[in-house]
């Protein structure tokens, strides 16, 4: 059985018109496929705002909640017209559950509460799309991802239990594909093995879900539908001129994702490489175009500099309190503390008496600094930008970096990185 896995992100399902376009894409080429959907539009951002307001003791952010309701019900009205009552009732029940959770005060930890609430975005989108597929007489099987994507309880960055997930995917998804040409499920979300607790795989984790399914089903290919023509060498919102990368080796794509290329979730590529499954990045606006292909190939085509920008960076510099040197045991201890706070380092630089790390600004910054101050003097800068240039030249660097603003610079044979002030 030849299986294709396709993922539609938030931008591809952000309106009634966009959802109709997705159905057109699916109908244009009948085949055995698993379709993974994200939350609609900016739903995840809105749900994050609700969680943040709840933990800042502001209670329910009714403005954001009402916007979410209006947004989803507006799409439903446009899709279903007078036939909207059944799906509206189901969506109402999800919003009632969200509001109940926001009003609760059971002392639940932030990350676990986050996963419980934010995972509702994929519940909403997948249920609405499933109802619309049925409304348009498209036969399909609806499945919950948390029934077969099994993870640990590292909330917001859950780790997949590959052996258990593969067995469950074959039990649920592969069996469903014997009777249906289309299986619809959610990206980003999973569940612990107790069957009760929802988890999430990290922001933009729907790509990763598609890769997990592709690997476990030994799919023919995996396609990610985006609002761009393929994988570009830079974010078109950042640079006036960009180049589409037609073919990208797996290892190059892993490097680009590692450095922060937002077109692909960092964990997506490796499972596909392990089973030589090509990953296509295609435009949902122009589905007939070839897009980009990440696969086993010798070189990137065309070979041009790639630019990656990461905003809202923090530079944290640590010095021993007793004027001793920064040695291996210090670095090990520091990274243990960073790991306890789930901080991923984007850049590191050390000298004889200091260690500096750069990472995304986040809500754990203050408690992290407090933990480190027990052992080290701590200095930090916020509101920085990390610029990475792969396959750089001096001209390529000069186009994006102003030397007086550079705080940290690192270069290897292929990659140059610059941490710069933004003011």
Topology:
Layout: E1 4-8, H1 16-28, E2 33-37, H2 43-55, H3 62-80, H4 85-103, H5 110-118, H6 120-135, E3 141-142, E4 150-151, H7 162-177, E5 182-186, E6 189-192, E7 198-200, H8 206-217, E8 221-226, E9 247-249, H9 250-259, H10 269-274, E10 279-283, E11 292-295, E12 306-320, H11 328-340, E13 345-350, E14 355-360, H12 365-373, E15 376-390, H13 394-398, E16 406-411, E17 415-421
Parallel strand pairs: 1-2, 1-8, 2-5, 3-5, 4-6, 8-10, 9-11
Antiparallel strand pairs: 6-7, 10-11, 12-14, 12-15, 13-14, 15-17, 16-17
Helix pairs in contact: 2-5, 3-4, 3-6, 4-6, 7-8
Fourth-level CATH superfamily of the largest domain: Acetylglutamate kinase-like
Structural class: alpha/beta
Shape: globular
Q: Just name the CATH architecture of the largest domain.
A: 3-Layer(aba) Sandwich
By DSSP (H or I, 4+ residues per run), the number of helices equals 13
The percentage helix is 25-40%
Report how far the terminal alpha carbons are from each other.
56 Å
Count of spatially separate domains: 2
Rg is: 23 Å
Give a written overview of the molecule.
- The protein has 423 residues and is α/β, with parallel strands linked by helices.
- It has two domains: 4-226, 3-Layer(aba) Sandwich (Carbamate kinase), CATH 3.40.1160.10; 306-421, 2-Layer Sandwich (VC0802-like), CATH 3.30.2130.
- The protein is built from 13 helices and 17 strands.
- The chain has helices spanning 16-28, 43-55, 62-80, 85-103, 110-118, 120-135, 162-177, 206-217, 250-259, 269-274, 328-340, 365-373, 394-398, and strands at residues 4-8, 33-37, 141-142, 150-151, 182-186, 189-192, 198-200, 221-226, 247-249, 279-283, 292-295, 306-320, 345-350, 355-360, 376-390, 406-411, 415-421.
- The strands form three sheets. The protein has an eight-stranded mixed β-sheet with strand order 3-5-2-1-8-10-11-9, sandwiched between helices.
- Helix 2 runs antiparallel to helix 5 (110-118) and helix 4 packs antiparallel against helix 6 (120-135).
